[in-house]
Amino acid sequence: MRTTRFMLATALLASAASVPTTAAFSQMPSAGAITPSLTLKAAKAQYRPVRFEPAMPAASGTLVLPLTAEGDLATRASVLSDAERSAIQRALASAEFDYANPGSLTLRGIGNWDRIHVVGTGKDLSAAAVQKLGVMAGRALMKDKGPLVVLAGGLPAEAAAELATGMGIGEYRSDLYQAKAREAAPMAATTIVSDSAQAARALYEDRGKPLIDAMAFARDLSNEPANVVYPESFVERTRAAFAGVAGVTIEALDVPAMEKLGMGSILGSGRGSARPPRMLIVRYTGRSAPAYGPVVLAGKGITFDSGGISLKNGSGMGDMKFDMSGAASVVGAVLALARSRAPVDVVAIAALSENMPDGNAARPADVLQAMNGKTIEIISTDAEGRLVLADAVAYADAKLNPAAIVDVATLTGSIMTALGDDYAGLFSRHDPLADQLIMAGDASGDELWQMPLHPSYAEDTKSTIADIKNSGVSGAGAGAGAHFIGAFVKPETPWAHIDIAGMAWGGANDLKPAGATGYGVRLLERFVRDFQPVEKVAGK
Ligand code: BES
Ligand code: MN
Ligand code: ZN
Question: Which residues neighbour ligand 2 (ion) by CB within 5 Å?
């Protein structure tokens, strides 16, 4: 089979007049043919069902008690008995409970409760801060599957809904292939006791639940290994997740369709893989008479990044199954918006490809041509994310009349060195757009830090044979990557690039447990909801 493929490819390349694309793909066996008959099937995700009630149910299971100050005990916990309240009071006093900073303390042996989980909220009761408290609580309480009662009396409906949303996000688990652990017994319900139960329920159902589900969708896609999630199966999963959701159209460009459009850059990136690339386009239309075009979110979707011919070294290579996290986040954000029927127009483009070494793979020094006609000299086949995004953003620019393009990518190790796992790096020629993204970052908790696009990056990426090269010479690795992608967007189109390499997967703590974090889903959901069009003038 190898010989046949090689000969076919050679014949096709010899007859090609222009910069070679990838006719070889169409001769390859379909992914189905190379899928082993043993197919993995992940256990179903689950989180606690949530109820909102004005009155407290009978004491059973775990009580969650948020407290901002000592005085809250008398009011928020007024539904408890005097004996329970004074026991809690004594325990908190003896533990010198810190009300000033977020934290928690679990008490046992009080009243009929298995546990009382006291959550010190700290002073910041913004939506992002309260949701974060919910994430921590959800995570901390998932070992025990019994019922939860959350006392949210006195908190606004928004806070009660954010708390429940955070808990659902925190209850996510990444042990996809430990079916026994996941399916042993379903988790019992969470009852949120709130004096604005009805309003809180509506907020949770309309926005919170779609967000929890979209985060789980994106995290599952990222956590799945590359023998399960590859370009075609990413597309199938997306179609399944959007089934029955109103206002959505899904299109997946296959290899011949991409060849027709001249997308030689993404095609070049995937030539070493037996899994052919796809350009997945998910459009949600939630406005009836739009005065301007959609916001386009383009995601890097490298389902596995071995480095290609510029092969990575072995240690930690498995982490590169997460290299499609940008694509998962943009599709996840659109899923959240569509399922909550948000009044917005948005398109997610997932640029899906697998970066593998092979006799057909692109080499260093090869030249590719992107959809906008620009030619690219490959310096390193490991700088592949920018190759797939070049065609994604050029497509958006040419075909979709975008009000803005935001691309999201696990693009560089260099952004991790700069910003660690606290901020994703933001690059833009349009400050009014960057400002909106930074605000959405603060509001959602997916924080951003703006980085420069120095004119020297253009010098850095000059090629002697083609229009641009895919890796710069200076030390500014993340900046050179950002500049490269920007070269495939018209100067006047508002565009921003977000490098999430440091944020896409965790392992550090309960906020970022092992596996995918879903970074970007909340950020982009917030950003698109609040989006205001910015002027289409050449950026700085
Ligand atoms: N997917 C990697 C970036 C990455 C590295 C993400 C580590 C998360 C953790 C990307 O494709 C890559 O290989 N980038 C190179 C670019 C270089 C070859 C110009 C890098 O950052 O070293
Ligand atoms: Mn790479
Ligand atoms: Zn990569």
Answer: 305, 382
Structure tokens at 72: 């809250």
Please, are residues 463 and 377 in contact by the beta-carbon 8 Å criterion?
yes
User: What are the tens digits of pLDDT across the range 304-356?
Assistant: 999 999 999 989 999 999 999 999 999 999 999 999 999 999 999 999 999 99
Q: Is the CB of 166 under 6 A from ligand 1?
A: no
CA distance 72 to 80: 13
Long-range residue pairs from 14-21, CB within 8 A, at least 24 positions apart, any chain:
18/369, 19/264, 19/367, 19/368, 19/369, 19/375, 20/264, 21/259, 21/262, 21/263, 21/264, 21/267, 21/268, 21/369
Task: Pick the catalytic residue from 51, 145, 182, 312.
Answer: 312
Walk across the sheet containing 248-253 and list its strands.
248-253, 278-285, 345-355, 295-305, 404-409, 495-499, 424-428, 448-450
Which DSSP category does 373 fall into? S
Distance separating alpha carbons of residues 137 and 321, to the nearest angstrom: 29
Instruction: Give the contacts of 330 (CB within 8 A, at least 6 positions apart).
Output: 297, 298, 299, 348, 349, 350, 408, 520, 524
User: Phi first, then psi: what are they for 199, rounded to 5°?
Assistant: -65, -40
Please name each of the domains of the chain with its CATH number.
Answer: 50-209 (3.40.220.10), 226-530 (3.40.630.10)
- Three-state DSSP string of 480-533: HHHHHHHCCCCCCCCEEEEECCCCCECCCCCCCCCCECCCCHHHHHHHHHHCCC
- Which tokens in the block code for residue 346? 């948005």
Read off the pLDDT of residues 232-284 as tens digits, 9 standing for 90 and up. 999 999 999 999 999 999 999 999 999 999 999 999 999 999 999 999 999 99
Paired residues of 148 in beta bridges: 62, 190
**Could you give the dihedral angle defined by the CA atoms of residues 313, 318, 321 and 325, in that order, rounded to the nearest 10 degrees?**
-80
d(CA 75, CA 68) in angstroms, rounded, equals: 11
- In angstroms, what is the span from residue 379 Cα to ligand 3's centroid? 14
Active site residue 386: yes
